[in-house]
Amino acid sequence: MAESNHPIKRFVHWIAPNAAWDMVKWIGGSTVLGSIWHFFLLEYHRSSVDWIWLGVSFGAGLLLILLAARFQSKVTAKDSQNASSTALANTLAPTLREISLASGSAVLFWHYSAAAKELVEMLDRLWHHWNNAGEHLVYPLTINPSIRPLHETIALCIEHRDFKVLYGNHIEHLQQQFPSFTSRTMVYGFPSKVEYPDAITALREHAELLNKVGNDSWEARNGGTS
Fold it and tell me: What is the pLDDT of residue 218?
């Protein structure tokens, strides 16, 4: 009886390489969906769209999906011909690591940088809207800032609420994705009793640092070329 034809053994030989490329597809799909989500977020807030970043993000995600689909088809063909699945998995693993590190991490840092720049614009608009209404947004990162009765300033409160939701989600998701990343914005956290000038300055620095880390990550994995 030939052991290589055992159903369980054939299944293990098939699932090992395919699971790896399924993960690449997931990374690519997440990147594509993230760029689409960011586009609609910018449209919703009627902000300027960074078409270069969106193109890079969407293209990188699509490239990952196409690469995974191409290699998965090769894996299936080789398995049908009883090729060695162990050798194939060893060949694919370094490629997967390079794709994940070079494309995945860099694109994610660029995504967070673009989101931080949008938060800077939102905070700047928010401060001016409050100032024009005779209010002073001294501590924009607090839950309940001092303000006139709600019924007199409902539009300002809604705008401030939207900013705080996006700001808090940005920090939370970034901490989960890259726990070692730090900046003044990350140190301040949310909520935080930080005055407006310090908050917006730190947020600008935060956006630039995220972009720099993304560039460095890309260049380090591609021989110093962008």
Answer: 84
